[in-house]
Specification:
There is one protein chain. This protein is mainly α and 294 residues long. The chain is 74% helix and 2% strand. The protein has helices at 16-27, 47-84, 94-108, 119-124, 129-163, 169-196, 204-279, 287-293, and strands spanning 5-7, 13-15. A two-stranded antiparallel sheet has the order 1-2.
Length: 294
């Protein structure tokens, strides 16, 4: 398409494109708003809107991360709890309540705590309150030994795990509660021992440990004997069953052999009978000739 030319008064000519370029240079097109299709003005989005959207997305991401982190921590707590199970869910033995029941009964019968050991009275009376309380307290201490050993065994590993942040807070608190309970029980037993006999608190736990070891060894020995007796009984039963099965099998073989022999005898008798029946002449002479004459 040919461009239109304009003849200036001085005789020069100017094309339309040159006029547009001159107009753009003089007027400038920076302030002219962009036009869309059909000559409509194009509106731009405020940057504050983009900023608000970005902040909203950032807030959503932060909420999701915190939620997942809390779920992960809860899962870790459950993992450690399930890993150790009932390790630190400890309870004091029933011998503790039994001791206080015996003490209350002795006080009802006139016993006054803190009088110390009365050797002569105790020797003469096997049911003396001092003897009953001492026996009940020793049983209590012996029953406490497994708890004390358990805490002593777990204390180093739990302290190491906690210092290295390898155990959950819940697990650590359960351990601390169990340790506090056992420590209070140890101190209480010592106090009761000194009340019965001054100075006994220095010996009672050592004595309880020795008695517990003796009882444990006796229990293990009894369990081993029971296990051995069960194994011997099972072995005898298995041997008797094996012998019974062998006898039954031998008897079955004899019966099978006898039956086979009887079957053979019967078969031979049948053969003999059939042979004798044919050999005895079952067809009469002249039978065919008589038929012809008729």
């Amino acid at each position: 398409m040919a461009e239109e030319a304009t003849i200036n008064p001085d005789g020069s000519t100017t094309f339309e494109s040159q006029q547009e370029e001159f107009f753009d240079e003089k007027m400038g097109n920076d302030d002219v708003p962009p036009l869309g299709e059909g000559g409509e003005e194009v509106t731009t989005t405020d940057p504050a809107v983009f900023l608000l959207i970005a902040l909203a997305l950032f807030a959503v991401v932060v909420i999701i991360i915190k939620k997942r982190r809390s779920q992960a921590e809860a899962a870790d707590d459950d993992f450690f709890s399930n890993l150790d199970g009932e390790k630190f869910n400890l309870r004091l033995p029933e011998e503790v309540d039994n001791y206080y029941a015996v003490k209350a009964k002795c006080e009802e019968n006139g016993y006054v705590p803190g009088q110390g050991l009365q050797a002569e009275a105790v020797a003469k009376n096997p049911s003396h309150p001092h003897r009953l309380l001492a026996q009940a307290l020793m049983k209590r201490a012996i029953a406490d030994i497994p708890l004390v050993q358990h805490i002593q065994k777990e204390a180093p590993s739990m302290n190491r795990l906690y210092s290295q942040s390898m155990c959950s807070v819940k697990q650590w608190r359960n351990y601390q509660a169990a340790e506090a309970m056992v420590s209070a029980e140890v101190d209480e037993v010592r106090a009761e021992a000194d009340e019965l006999e001054p100075g006994w608190s220095q010996l009672i736990w050592r004595q309880a440990m020795q008695y517990h070891g003796m009882l444990k060894a006796r229990h293990e020995q009894e369990q081993a004997m029971v296990k051995k007796a069960k194994e011997e009984a099972l072995a005898k039963a298995a041997e008797a069953q094996k012998k019974q099965n062998a006898e039954a099998e031998a008897k079955a073989k004899v019966l099978a052999a006898e039956k086979a022999a009887q079957d053979l005898l019967k078969e031979e008798e049948r053969k003999k009978e059939s042979a004798s029946a044919f050999a005895g002449g079952g067809i009469k002479k002249g039978f065919l000739d008589g038929k012809k004459k008729k």
